[in-house]
């Protein structure tokens, strides 16, 4: 497809301590398609990044970045084939992602707490430092790590409820319960910056997205492709994205033809807020 971005990184052949510069082999590949780049301009300014292992002859890892539009539709926007998850491979992926897809300021990156991702995001050469980009943790991964130290569903539930709290008062309600149960739980949580794992201090950047579940949805969408050779895998992402764009385009055309000006997720949210507001009671207090 014209306009498709591909960045190939090769490596010389090594024989014992000798390097043969005349022969190169495949090392890493980044790619994205023009419709994905254009569509991201109309999505929420956040991306979920994740990696999934490949099971083919050559192994490796597929890194991917996922966005979501205002109608809650997921959109894969970039891919990379790398040797594994480490600081160098994530730097390769994130630097190209920022250069070719998410070049605007203030992007939020949601991920697990992998050390390779941390190092890549903190590398100033990748363009992922504030104010250019911000980082947030997937609460599912945080809770999983928390459960290794503190057993029981109740402990995990309290941490998750504190993370999802939308107000400071609600957050400290759950945090105080954790402190009462076991002070060590609060000490564990306090080792993380609040803006990276709590919703009430995310400055509105999360748009309610607390996990990388959208990445896992795409992992399931790519089921059956992770054992393919490199060329077939790239072709598969193109084919499945082409089907996705056609399907979403047809859906949008039907909605516009029916006179719907806004996407259905937004309309339903507005209607729900209107219904809920009818139950509100307004109490007037003395302004002084």
TrEMBL record:
It comes from the Eukaryota. InterPro entries: MULE_transposase_dom. Residues 47-144 form the MULE transposase domain. This is Uncharacterized protein LOC107464935. It comes from Arachis duranensis.
């Amino acid at each position: 497809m014209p306009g498709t971005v591909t960045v190939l990184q090769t490596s010389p052949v090594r024989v014992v301590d000798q390097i043969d510069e005349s022969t190169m082999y495949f090392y890493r590949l980044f790619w994205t398609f023009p419709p994905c780049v254009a569509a991201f301009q109309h999505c929420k300014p956040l991306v979920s990044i994740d990696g999934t292992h490949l099971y083919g002859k050559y192994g490796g890892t597929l890194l991917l970045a996922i966005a979501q539009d205002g109608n809650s539709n997921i959109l894969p926007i970039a891919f990379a084939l790398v040797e594994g998850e480490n600081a160098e491979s994530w730097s390769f992926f994130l630097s190209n992602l920022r250069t070719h897809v998410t070049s605007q300021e203030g992007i939020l990156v949601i991920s697990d707490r992998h050390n390779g991702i941390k190092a890549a995001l903190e590398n100033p050469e990748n363009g992922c430092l504030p104010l250019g980009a911000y980082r947030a943790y997937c609460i599912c991964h945080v809770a999983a790590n928390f459960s290794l130290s503190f057993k029981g569903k109740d402990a995990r539930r309290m941490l998750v409820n504190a993370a999802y709290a939308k107000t400071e008062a609600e957050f400290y309600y759950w945090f105080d319960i954790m402190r009462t149960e076991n002070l060590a739980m609060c000490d564990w949580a306090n080792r993380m910056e609040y803006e990276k794992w709590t919703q009430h201090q995310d400055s509105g950047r999360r748009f309610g997205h607390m996990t990388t579940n959208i990445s896992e949805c795409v992992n399931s969408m790519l089921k059956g492709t992770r054992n393919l050779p490199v060329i077939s895998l790239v072709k598969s992402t193109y084919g499945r994205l082409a089907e996705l764009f056609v399907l979403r385009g047809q859906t949008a055309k039907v909605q516009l033809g029916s006179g719907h000006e806004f996407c259905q997720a937004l309309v339903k949210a507005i209607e729900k807020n209107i219904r809920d507001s009818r139950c509100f009671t307004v109490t007037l207090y003395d302004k002084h």
